[in-house]
Design brief:
2 copies of one chain form a homodimer.
Chain A lengths: L26 H9 L4 H10 L2 E2 H7 L5 H13 L3 E6 L5 E6 L1 H33 L1
Antiparallel strand pairs in A: 1-3, 2-3
Chain A binds a DNA duplex through helix 4.
Amino acid sequence: MQDGTFTLQGHPEVPTRHGDVFAADCPTRQLLDRIGDKWSVLILILLGEGNLRHNALKRRIQGISQKMLSQTLRSLERDGLVTRHVRPTVPVEVEYRITPLGHGLLNALRLMIDWAGAKMPEVAAAQAAYDRR
Amino acid sequence: MQDGTFTLQGHPEVPTRHGDVFAADCPTRQLLDRIGDKWSVLILILLGEGNLRHNALKRRIQGISQKMLSQTLRSLERDGLVTRHVRPTVPVEVEYRITPLGHGLLNALRLMIDWAGAKMPEVAAAQAAYDRR
DNA sequence: CAGCATCCATGACGATACTG
DNA sequence: CAGTATCGTCATGGATGCTG
C-alpha cells in the first residue's frame, strides 16, 4: 500500500498507515473528484437500470443541460465506467451502457445512497437547529 | 417515499419510483453536494479514528489551507456530523469529534472508499487508454 | 492556538447558437 | 438526434494578513 492510501477496514486500531501525508493522490480523493460533481452518480444510477440514449437520459434527468450531459458522459466513458455505442442510422442513434467497472462502483455506492435516503432528514434537522441558534 | 427519492435496493426491476423527476432535492444529490467537496470525507475519516484538534487535523491533511479546514469543519458541524468542544484554557483548545450520525455516514462510505482503493488503478488505466487514441 | 476577513484565480455550470 | 462552440456567471478554494 503506497503512502496516502487507506482502506479503513478495521476501525481505530491500526491507523491504516497513511503516513501523515493524506496526499492528493489518495484514491478516495481521486474518486470524489470524479463522482462528486453534479451529475455523474445520477447518470450511473440510471444506466445501472438499463441502457439509455442521449435524449432519454436528458429527459430523465430534469434540469441537466445538454452540455453537461455530454461532458459528463464523456468523462464517465473516459474513466471506463460507461461505454458509447453508435448505430449508423439516419439520424444517428447513440446508446450508453454501464460497464462492469461502473456497475461495481454503483454497488459500492449503494450503501451511501441508501444512507442518504434514510438519514438526510436528520442532517437537515441538524442544520435547522444550528441555524436557529 | 417522495418524488425524486430512490434507494436502489433491489436492482433493475421495481425502478424505485423516482417518477421522472430525479429532482434536485433527491437525497443522494444533497449528500453529494456536501461530501463531494475537497476535504469533508478526509476529515470524517480522520475523526473516525479519534478526536483531533484543529492543528492536528491541519498537520494530518497535507495541503489543506487554514480557511478550508475551518470552513469544512463548520459545515460538518452544521450538518450534525461532527461536534466542536472548547476547553477554556489559555490559549483555547478546540477538539473535534465525530457524532454517531457522522459515524453512520462513514460506515456507509466504507464500501466506496474500499472500492476506490481497489479499482482506481483500473480507472486510471481506462483513462490512459482513452487519451492515447 | 484557533479562526475570521479579504482578495484573487480557476473552473464548474448554464444558456444560447450552430453542425453532421 | 447527438452533439460542439462560445460566452457569462457564480461558487470553490488558495494566499495573505489580522485578532482574541
